[in-house]
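Entry:
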Amino acid sequence: MVDTKDYLQWLAKAENDLKAAKLILAGEQLYDISAFHCQQCVEKALKAYVLYHEGIIMETHSLPRLNQRCAKHDHTFLSFADSLHILNSFYIETRYPAVDELIVTRANAESAVDVANRVLEYVKNSLNA
């Protein structure tokens, strides 16, 4: 059960997802799995930010929704909006087979790592973590 209200623990989990994404990207061609971990990193970082400011854990996996909530406290988050819409597609589509399967290229995965890194660093700096 997810119940910790310690935003630093959420940030630590986000950092682990980013590390996993980078390791996977450097290894085998599992670009979809790397991209998924980037989505997870950003989700946890944004949840940490909301938790810090509002004391709640938002029960959503939607990066755009989480980002909008963060933007209520800091409009800079709006600059991430377009990138997070793309990253959001890696939550479900990369984990399950589909007729029209989402193909994640190395360039997509590298871009996802870059976005995740930027968002995580911004959140950490904003929270002095």
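Helices lie at 7-26, 31-54, 63-71, 81-88, 106-126.
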